[in-house]
Design goal:
This protein has 207 residues and is α/β, with parallel strands linked by helices. 46% of the residues lie in helices and 14% in strands. 34% of the residues are buried.
Length: 207
């Protein structure tokens, strides 16, 4: 029987997936993975999204919001042409590599294996992202076409002077540095398209 993607609650599916992993329930895993596959096959997701996903203690304390955040992160990474990766940020940040995994439960088991930290240092996260662009020699034209999803409860630390500026200004300053390192033409300063999704008191809609 076909499952309507509109009827699937991603956050609930993630919560059930963690429960199935904990119980090592093969039948439950099969049902959850089947529902996830139905979901991703029925929705049209562009493949040029990069995901920065909050894994700080503040978001993880709110299980419902965290499961919703994690579900969306996985869906966006699932179809990404740059590789199945999620940039998870806390006090320290790391790429979560999901390449070679194809089911929701496999994704969740991989994510569980990563060490997460209490804070939310977005500045370090952006530095790590830009370092990856440089290491892979990604041209400015390609970066400009990217859509950068930042999924968070927006409770970022006061690092890099965030009390005196805004998160958007910080992001633009990081990409200005990147642009000028690749081109001396100030007209070539670019940023990817930025999409913020606030999971603080999650309502189901981006903000």
């Amino acid at each position: 029987k076909s499952i309507n993607a509109r009827q699937i609650n991603l956050g609930q599916l993630v919560g059930d997936g963690f429960e199935a992993i904990m119980k090592n329930d093969t039948d439950m895993k099969f049902v959850i993975n089947t529902m996830f596959n139905e979901y991703v096959n029925q929705i049209n997701i562009p493949n040029n999204y990069l995901v920065i996903s909050d894994n700080s203690s503040s978001i993880r304390l709110d299980k419902e919001s965290y499961n919703n955040l994690l579900g969306l992160s996985i869906v966006l990474a699932h179809n990404c042409k740059y590789g199945k990766r999620i940039m998870a940020f806390g006090n320290r940040s790391a790429w979560i590599n999901l390449d070679g995994k194809n089911t929701l439960c496999d994704y969740l088991e991989t994510i569980k294996s990563y060490e997460f930290h209490r804070g939310s240092n977005i500045g370090y996260t952006l530095d790590l992202l830009i370092e990856s662009f440089n290491n892979h020699n990604i041209p400015l034209e390609e970066i400009q076409k990217m859509k950068l999803f930042i999924l968070s409860d927006m409770q970022v630390e006061n690092e890099e002077g965030l009390l005196n500026t805004t998160l958007m200004m910080l992001i633009k300053s990081k990409f200005t540095e990147l642009s000028l390192s690749k081109s001396k033409n100030k007209n070539d300063i670019i940023t990817p398209q930025l999409i913020f999704w606030n999971f603080n008191n999650y309502s189901g809609f981006p903000s």
